Amino acid sequence: MKGNEAFAEAAIRAGADGYFGYPITPQSEVMEYLMAEKPHERTGMVVLQAESEVAAINMVYGGAACGKRVLTSSSSPGISLKQEGISYIAGAELPCVILNVVRGGPGLGTIQPSQSDYFQSTKGGGHGDYRMIVLAPSSVQEMADFARLGFDLAFKYRNPVLVLSDGAIGQMMEKVELDEQRPRFTEEEIIKNTPWATTGKTKDRERNIITSLDLDSAKQELHNHALQAKYKLMQEQETRFEMISCEDADYLIVAYGTSARISQKAVDLLRAEGIKVGLLRPITLYPFPTEIISKLADQVKGILTVEMSAGQMIEDVRLAVGCRVKVEHFGRMGGIIPSPTEVVEAMQTKIIGG
Amino acid sequence: MAKVKGDIVIDIEKCKGCGVCIPACPNDVIALSKNVNGKGYNYAETVNEECIGCANCAIVCPDGVITVYRKKIE
Amino acid sequence: MAEITKEDIRKPENLIYKKTELLTDKALSYCPGCGHGTAHRIVMEVLEEMDIQDKTIGIAPVGCSVLAYEFMNIDMQQAAHGRAPALATAVKRLNPDKFVFTYQGDGDLAAIGTAETIHACNRGENIVIIFINNGIYGMTGGQMAPTTLPGMKSSTSPYGRDVHMMGNPLKMTELVAQLPGTIYVTRQAVHTPANVRKTKKAIRKAFENQKLNKGLSFVEIVSNCNSGWKMNPVQANEWMVENMFPFYPLGDIKVND
């Protein structure tokens, strides 16, 4: 299956209630797959092609506010349009899953893969002090896995979860193992598990209001404190990463998604030359695996970050490392995927020989 | 012939003195008071006993501060 | 005939009219005489009469009525500016047995939310849209709205709306009446008892349409903004009759029964 299709199928199987999207390359397969699968017949899931990305994310807001499992997907320019809605969703503390199959920018950019939306994804994107859990798949299997994990984390924290993929992972075909179909929430489960949801005010409870507005500054500050406490909890509980050949590493590569796949090959090539290199692959970009990178900084002599961007994640790596060891960036932009030999060369010139 | 007699109760603390009820009343029962409520509004008050309980005032009151009663008199 | 005292009249059995329980006790945040309060009340009266409080989800806009959820005693969602019809679309599609309505002003619905409005109407979402048109942005201090009349003064058209420079007012209601997805499109007002009664009937019809899965009902209420228009409430209503109604004539525009 293609990564985009695996994500769509996994979303149905995760018990999604609704998908709202708008076509954009390179992720249109998500909605195409969903429409072809007729999930309204399979599970009762609603799939709707909206008039814009803006409308789609606001449909997600409406659905999420009813306690439903809802999701949307897009690619970079479309995700920019969704930022308003994402900020409102974060402010109103609603659970949802958003997939960004990143393409090169800025502007209309290119339809080829890129990782240049890291800042937008992890540092806010929209207005206000908010964070999303950002999951970065590096395989078609993880595209599928993170649809379900995304929903579970979103509901655990009442927070939007972003799956930050890229055009390569979205379009690539790999074998994938899919979970069994999970039933959609029943009306009773929604009332029990998400008592805040707008399900219709019954006599036995006060009305439920979903809003991100509070004109009382003192209350708005309290709300912001509560959000920050939640984000801290996410940092403590949800940081995910993968370590490859790090035990004896003298040098480290930090890379996620497609770049991590390329870098893994580069690690093999460098080790074949007798250079002990390890790979740290952040799976959550927010919360960022700061602690482990900090620990590894005491072990290695230098760190190379590999990103399909001008170097964005490198800022978080440098924050983790401080000035203890050299941290340099290597990347390609404009939709170009770096080759393993380019990564090997960058490690040799920028870190080992630099 | 059955006659009706009405009366209204105005929640003067919630009245904003907009006066929209005044032209709605067929019997000129309502006028704005010279006094003000806690918010500083010259609130609406009844000035005669001609109310027939038609509820026109309550229906146009944006703030829903008027309660209307009507009793049939044989 | 014995003298009838006020106490004789003010008895529960003689009660004719009382503010609906579906409005909260919170004092409305609107300016004195603003039509929003009346519109809120009759929407809630309709829900009460249809006994659908526990099945209704309302969507509040951005604008003067951003805090509608403070006053309407039902489950509500507050939408980003102009996006209420998108929220309502999802809420209704995911909860087809619920009643869903949006409550929006003219800036929200006819400017920033034009796309969401047009497409929700065109898809024929089975929802009710209540559209309060007072020809001005009230909340932000009386700026020119998409509905501001030609020549009408506002804080961003201080010499009157010059249509050559600022464009024409948009008759959104006539526009959505052209779309196949709308089933009932009407324009009403709430400045007199007779108009309030008519508008309430229109809102009732809109919710009954939703009950019958007929499609989208769109109820415009031409209203006043005495603060923005810089008039007292009674003058504002008179000005509305003389100036707004000729441009935005009242009555049903589309009724598909």
Automatic annotation (TrEMBL), chain B:
Keyword annotations from UniProtKB, A to Z: 4Fe-4S, Iron, Iron-sulfur, Metal-binding, Oxidoreductase
Domain 4Fe-4S ferredoxin-type: 6-35, 43-71
Transmembrane feature ranges: none
InterPro entries, A to Z: 4Fe4S_Fe-S-bd, 4Fe4S_Fe_S_CS, Fe-S_Ferredoxin
Top enzyme category: oxidoreductase
A GO term, aspect molecular function: metal ion binding
Enzyme Commission code(s) on record: 1.6.5.11
Pfam families named in the record: Fer4_7 (PF12838)
Protein name per the record: NAD(P)H-quinone oxidoreductase subunit I, chloroplastic
Organism: bioreactor metagenome
The gene coding this protein: ndhI_27
UniProtKB/TrEMBL annotation, chain C:
Keywords on record: Oxidoreductase
Protein's UniProt keywords contain Secreted: no
One Pfam family hit: TPP_enzyme_C
Broad enzyme group: oxidoreductase
EC number(s) stated in the UniProt entry for this protein: 1.2.7.3
GO terms, biological process: cellular respiration
GO molecular function terms listed in the Swiss-Prot or TrEMBL record: 2-oxoglutarate synthase activity; thiamine pyrophosphate binding
Domain Thiamine pyrophosphate enzyme TPP-binding: 69-220
PANTHER family on file: 2-OXOGLUTARATE OXIDOREDUCTASE SUBUNIT KORB-RELATED, SUBUNIT OF PYRUVATE:FLAVODOXIN OXIDOREDUCTASE
Name of the protein: 2-oxoglutarate oxidoreductase subunit KorB
Annotated gene: korB_6
